[in-house]
Design goal:
The chain is α+β, with helices and mostly antiparallel strands and 131 residues long. It has helices spanning 2-19, 26-32, 79-95; strands at residues 41-42, 46-50, 58-64, 102-104, 118-122. The longest helix is centred in the first third of the chain and has 18 residues, at 2-19. Bound molecules: guanosine-5'-monophosphate and zinc ion.
Length: 131
């Protein structure tokens, strides 16, 4: 039983490492497991984890495992990875029973991490100026 679990975790780690296409990118490091994060959702093409500096009670980052630079900088070949962000958002909205939420992408000088990510934010008070 334990061996099975260890084998499963090793396989997952190897897969994630494969996705780490930019070794200097913090989100690639989270994807590969090099930097630890509390992963709240994972699917074939995406992971999601809480923002380190939340602007609301719920602030989750939904990130493609593939290093795609921005919401306006993706290729046709990345379509499924981008679509997967929305699939993950739906799962998280349902899982957290969110009845009011916002999905956002930053770009240009507003984007601080150059690895595509969707912000899922919800809560009575949202400090938008920090996003
Ligand atoms: P952006 O401004 O690029 O749209 O948002 C990047 C977000 O990533 C910020 O809200 C920031 O707090 C978050 N962030 C940056 N580094 C880390 C990290 O190492 N871990 C986590 N969980 N979030 C991070
Ligand atoms: Zn990256």
């Amino acid at each position: 039983m334990v061996l099975k679990k260890v084998k499963f975790l090793a396989k997952e780690a190897a897969l994630r490492l494969k996705y780490m296409t930019n070794k200097d990118c913090i989100f690639c490091k989270i994807v590969s497991g090099e930097v630890r994060s509390n992963i709240v959702y994972e699917a074939k093409r995406v992971i999601a984890f809480p923002d380190i500096n939340p602007i609301a009670a719920t602030h989750i980052l939904i990130v493609p495992k593939k290093h795609i630079e921005s919401a306006v900088g993706f290729q046709k070949a990345d379509t499924e990875d981008v679509m997967a962000l929305f699939g993950a958002a739906k799962k998280l909205v349902d899982k957290n029973s969110l009845d009011a939420y916002r999905l956002a992408f930053n770009g240009g000088k507003f984007q601080h991490v150059p690895h595509l990510h969707m912000h899922l934010v919800a809560g009575k008070k949202i400090e938008w100026s920090k996003l």
